[in-house]
Amino acid sequence: MRQPEIKQPQRVFTEAETAARFKVKIFTIRKWRREGSGPRFIRCGGRLIRYAENDISEWLAENTFRSNANELQTKTNS
How far apart are alpha carbons 75 and 77 in whole angstroms? Predict the structure, then answer.
């Protein structure tokens, strides 16, 4: 009988760790969250916010471009 696949727990980051990773202030991370322009986040109760490593990686991939023209073309097609 085949064993079920065990997924490794994914790492989560605090607001401060996420801000440090992008070299921006926590205020910027909060602004991105309000505007819906930053990485997806996890609300763990009232005010506790965390960012999953996979969501940060996905957000980076979606916002990585080879040129300004490529960025404009991608945004136009969306």
Answer: 5
The CATH number corresponding to 12-77 among 1.10.8, 1.20.1260, 1.10.10, 1.25.40 equals 1.10.10
3-state class of 37 per DSSP?
Answer: coil
Query: Which position has the token pair 């605090």?
Result: 14
CA distance 28 to 34: 10
Residues 6+ apart with CB under 8 A from 51: 12, 13, 14, 15, 17, 18, 39, 40, 41, 42
What tens digit of pLDDT does each residue of 21-78 get? 999 999 999 999 999 999 999 998 888 999 999 999 999 998 888 777 776 666 666 6
